[in-house]
Amino acid sequence: MKRESAVTIKDIADKLKVSPSTVSRALAGNPDININTRKKVADMAAELNYQPNLIAKSLRMNRTNTIGVIVPELVLHFFSSCISGMQNACSERGFNIIICQSNESFEQEKINVNTLASSRVDGLLISLSTETNSFEHLEYLKSNKIPFVLFDRVSEDISVSKVVIDDEKSSFEATQHLLNQGYKNIAFINGPENLFICRHRRIGYEQALKANGIAVNPANIHQSDLSEASNILCAQNILAMNPRPDAILAVNDVVAIDAIVTLKKLVNIPEEMGIVGFSNSPISKIVEPSLTTVDQPSYDMGFIAANHLLDKILDLNVPSNEAFTLHTNLILRDSTAKSKIPA
Residue 1: is its pLDDT beyond 50? Predict the structure, then answer.
């Protein structure tokens, strides 16, 4: 079936018997065009279902009013909430977004960057995959003067604006909560150490132990690749330890919930094993027992990252490598509600 041709400015001009330049200026709201003529043009454009040629417009403006977003996994509530903040920030300022996911693959992340850059997006918002350990694709963006901002999963190795939480402080406070609840032998299930968030959450965990006069036991630090199978294996290994840890700090809620599901038939949570996660995902409220977790301001992270990128795109004289550190809150639930031992 032959596709109908799109209505053009010339079609509107022919219908109204005016020049195409008059139609163009009328549609742009040019005050030099009589208000009655502007109304006639607008009405005819609506009648003919005229849609402006965005490609031609972007070539004239040297801007597409579109930004690209790359996240590791869309299925994670944290990233979907970030995207919601980005969408609202962009919509308020007349921009659209194109969303890609790397599926935790470095190769896919590079493909996403190249695809979005080739599509002439005005800038990118990127959260790195678990596999990302080199940054030539990001240096390519810098060398081609394509602005971008990293959020949540960032790197210290590239000078660019970043939006993060205080991972060390948040992890310190979560570990301190477990100690305050009477847990003494705390294990940590971490993710890949090449990720900024994983390194700094481990540092916060270790600092809390040291602040309480507890030596860090390397055997208590378990590393997951963040897959379900790896999360479960870490939980099983902790259960098999002798002496067995009586609490787990997990690098995120998915890891923590996999640990709860794996362990709760074998140990009493929270009496024999306390568990804390990171993110405050919706399922953390309904898992049994409900999960104590660090609430990350994911919507705000996306909103701030997008607005900062738009400021860069619009040349509003913002720093090229500004750091935004957002505050978190520890949400107390049943997974650490250990009964107090009478004095």
Answer: no
